[in-house]
Amino acid sequence: MAAFRSRVGGLAYGGDYNPEQWDPAVWREDVRLMREAGVNVVSLGVFAWASLEPEPGTYAFGWLDEVMDLLHGNGIAVNLATPTAAPPVWLTQLHPEVFPIMADGEPFGFGSRLHYDPSSPIYRRYAAAITTKLAERYSYHPALAMWHISNEYGPTAYNPASSVAFREWLRRRYGSLDALNEAWTTRFWGQVYTSWEQIEVPNIPRSWSNPARRLDFKRFTSDALLECFVAERDIVRSFRDDIPVMTNFMRFYRHADYWRWAPEEDAVALDIYPDPADPSSHISAAFQYDLFRSLKGGQPWMLMEQAASAVSQWKLNVVKEPGRMLLGSLQALSRGADSVMFFQWRASRGGQERLHSAMLPHSGPSSRTFREVVELGRELRLLSGVAGTSSRADVAILFDWNGWWGLEETYGLPRNDFSYADTVMRHYTPLWREHVPLDVVSASSDLSPYKVLIVPNAYLIDDVGVSGIQEFARNGGTVIMSFFSGVVDSCNRVRPDGYPGAFRELIGAKIDEYWPARPAETFTVEFTDGRVTTSTWWREDLHLETGKPLAVYQDGLLSGRAAVVENTFGSGRVVYFATLLEESAFGEVLVDAVREAGVESPFAGVPSHVECTIRGDKYLFLLNHSADEPTTVPLTFAGIDLLTGAEVAEEITLAPLGATVIEIGGGKSGPQPDDRTTRIASGASL
Ligand code: GAL
């Protein structure tokens, strides 16, 4: 990635480029306007399989040769895609079995994209062939700077070929049928298998299926997709191994375990479309950015796609008003992105996404969007020093795909309407509002760098995760955990000796029963410090052992019993929420627990609509998410506003949706680096 960074001169800027939809005269105008905008890299050929191989084994590379040369001649690097997300129609007609069969038993059909069964040996053979041809031809083309393998890996398939591959995957995982029968508890409802050939993918849409089988099917599907990525990656690497290889991920994407994928890539990349009509979409975006920074242990990641203005896939597609696109782009940089890229460079005239915005919209270079695109290009050049830098937080939040699947994919829980994404955001948001930096961790991450670990609704967690959390607390960490955690093992089997089997000692309490609330039922909860609030949705019939109540119910059958527990475990502290507290009260208690663990935001007192982030110890990003209010932020140090070049000290005013980046201490009168680190870390307000 360092070579890639130096090649693009810092931050990468550009988007998906689909010249196959246009005639060559347009390509020349594209390149001229790309230069005007400061574009330095494009993702090329993402869905171009049909244009590259119009018939089986007949290739048409002439147009791509010309475009690669043209881009290179104009100093624009290429992130070359393997086009395998969109198999051509001839392939599906020759081999209809490559279509994924959906959960309802019907094949996906032709005319969209992602219409392949990842386990199909036929699909894999053809995908390898086109990848090999591309790599043969372009590996040493001077424009090539990165490989973009396929696009947004995603299909879940229920094909006969999926069953064959599933069996192989299960054999590798369990070794013997006895072990599988045990892991899946197949004596329940008489499902015992006596030969591997009896095992199918769980394609029974008319009923619920075995929860361990479902869980393994999720794991298998993620791995099958990953195998497709790895196969193509290995092909391109076999020609040349100094070009970074990645693929683009999605936000809150449940069907691929990105913790398993990230180590296989040179960088992780995210496509994200925060909805301008949703007043909290920037907070959810911030979480994704923290996740992506964390997926490869703090290494910079790539913002691979965002919209220049409106999208077209929802019922209501609101524009990004002036400034919002710039603001969102800087937000991604503030949390570790080394690129700002879009879907797509030029708006398509036809096709499904003909009204999706683009860097160069239908209204052309005189449009507002294009002016903002040119401005963004200018700003990114000014911010090139940010590239390659990172940051590390004191607080970590667990985000685990297995836990997600356990809560949402396997049914049979006390309530079956959990949303893992919502619960994670409920824990993340109060800290975001207080400008407390967070990293995201998996169940097997090293927790030793952190002071606080947040564990939202970890119903299913494996033994490694359990002992990691216990060890963390024992060594003095603060664990903040919410209800229905530590219930089952990695095979979805209830852990022995009562709830919460994994965490009884950790939380200092035993739970007799989980008590989901009736619709609209609320409970009064009083804290030991006198604060009174309400809770809803969930309660636990909890019996304290070593734990102490932090809050108790004031009404209902659990009146007088603990609703929030604190416990000492080793030299650590545990705060356990056994109910869903009203949101602002929950936020206060959570933030208090983080403060008590010695974590202070350097930006305490700055209104929460101004997002404050420090990247690389010296770049302070200030982002005003209010579309109405200009906001003045006090500064306790001098620095340089990198976007205007002005020296700033004492305070800075941000326009509505305004953003800036200050190089701390960059001014003549600014403090020396050591001073500024100390001042920020010691909690000086801005
Ligand atoms: C992404 C996809 C792009 C484009 C974009 C806008 O998910 O990778 O090809 O479809 O969404 O909808």
UniProtKB/TrEMBL annotation:
Reaction equation(s) it catalyzes: Hydrolysis of terminal non-reducing beta-D-galactose residues in beta-D-galactosides
Domain Beta-galactosidase trimerisation: 393-599
PANTHER family per record: BETA-GALACTOSIDASE GANA
Major enzyme class: hydrolase
Region feature Disordered, mapped onto this chain: 665-686
Annotated source species: Nonomuraea ferruginea
This protein's UniProt keywords: Glycosidase, Hydrolase
Pfam families xrefs: Glyco_hydro_42, Glyco_hydro_42C, Glyco_hydro_42M
Domain Beta-galactosidase C-terminal, first and last residues per copy: 615-662
Domain Glycoside hydrolase family 42 N-terminal, chain residue ranges per copy: 16-381
Gene3D superfamilies documented for this protein: 3.40.50.880, Glycosidases, Golgi alpha-mannosidase II
EC number: 3.2.1.23
Similarity comment: family membership: Belongs to the glycosyl hydrolase 42 family.
Top-level division of the source organism's lineage: Bacteria
Stored InterPro entries: Beta_galactosidase_C, Beta_galactosidase_Trimer, Class_I_gatase-like, GH, Glyco_hydro_42, Glyco_hydro_42_N, Glyco_hydro_b
Name the record gives this protein: Beta-galactosidase
